[in-house]
Amino acid sequence: MLTLHIIRRELQGDVTLLTLAHADGIELPAFSAGAHVDLHLSAELVRPYSLCGDPQDRHHYQLGILKDSRSQGGSLAAHALREGDEVQVSAPRNLFALDTRGNHSLLIGGGIGITPMLAMAAELHAAGRSFSLHYACRSRSGAAFVTQLENAPYAERVQLHFSDEQRLNLASVLSDVPPNTHVYVCGPSRLMEAVSSLAKNLDYPPDQIHQECFSADVQIQGNAFEVVAAASGITVQVAENQSIVEALALAGLKVCVSCKQGICGSCLTDVLEGEPDHRDSYLTDEEKADGDQILLCCSRAKGARLIIDL
């Protein structure tokens, strides 16, 4: 865990840019484009945010955080941080890394989903690799990073799309690319679903479509079942409207969770026996089919009993 000082700057579109640095100016753990860190905003409030700075900058982490009126506390707590405050930050983790096998990288960021794309563009530009970046927002006035992109050293590779000017034409963007293009998308679920669906229709191989979710509408309700935490010797009943995490917490077994939406993977646990009912956006279809892992914050059991390695 790192204790870092905050430099704060307000951007348009209700976005705050937090720059985090060590008080003594020492280097921070390295990260690659697509990585995120967990901000420990309180003892019980931990949230993941994408790193949007240049991976070559070893002295700063940068996070662009939208003030979300639907927040469950994370973005509001992050926006309450002030210049000079200290915050506990995890080491970077990368679940959305660039695939070096691609001849070209097509980056699509919608709204605050542009943040991981900024780091990707910086890394690709520094490496001299082929890429293009599309930034879609409702309006220019609400596009937090438009000035940064217009002045970036790779500005000629950037296209801006605003709903009240010229909307993003996904069919054109996904078709006008070199062979062996990998597409990366982050933003509202509707945008990501549209990109994924259209890319598949255009015969993109599944392993060339990459996405990162910021939020997910998960439904934890279902039939009650029993969970055995084998390593801890604890057995609990998970009620119809209860998550596995909640049931285990009542029995005194606290599970490390961050997003609570099946996105970040922090509560990923091995399954020793039983069949998971996957509700997450983290595991791939192949991993879900294997049935040997589960996200405890949202997923359930298809049968009456699940034994996990916890």
UniProtKB/TrEMBL annotation:
Its EC number is 1.-.-.-. It comes from Buttiauxella selenatireducens. The keyword Metal-binding applies. The keyword Iron-sulfur applies. It comes from the Bacteria. Its cofactor is FMN. Keywords: 2Fe-2S, Flavoprotein, FMN, Iron, Iron-sulfur, Metal-binding, Oxidoreductase. This is PDR/VanB family oxidoreductase. Residues 216-310 form the 2Fe-2S ferredoxin-type domain. Residues 1-99 form the FAD-binding FR-type domain.
